[in-house]
Design goal:
The chain has about 110 residues and is mostly beta strands. It contains no helices and 11 strands.
Amino acid sequence: EVQLVESGGGLVQPGGSLRLSCAASGFTFGSYDMSWVRQAPGKGPEWVSVINSGGGSTHYAYSVKGRFTISRDNAKNTVYLQMNALKPEDTAVYYCNYHVYWGQGTQVTVSS
């Protein structure tokens, strides 16, 4: 059974940082690209970032480029999202995604 479990969300002030984690199980993690997607209140899902299976190639949405960094540890079956210089518009539930599978999400709230 595929499981994706996100963690690391919380309340942070504008300009602050958070590091999200997504622990994966039930599939050969190191063989697949992994993505982060977010959904803000009242809005549709927004793709944030993707990392290839080996970790050597990453891509970002324009809205987060230069502020967020995706990484992975294939030995730990975990993908990360380091989020710096957070803005109120980054407030959303963040999900990790593989193929058709999604985690339960972790809430990120950026507010003073």
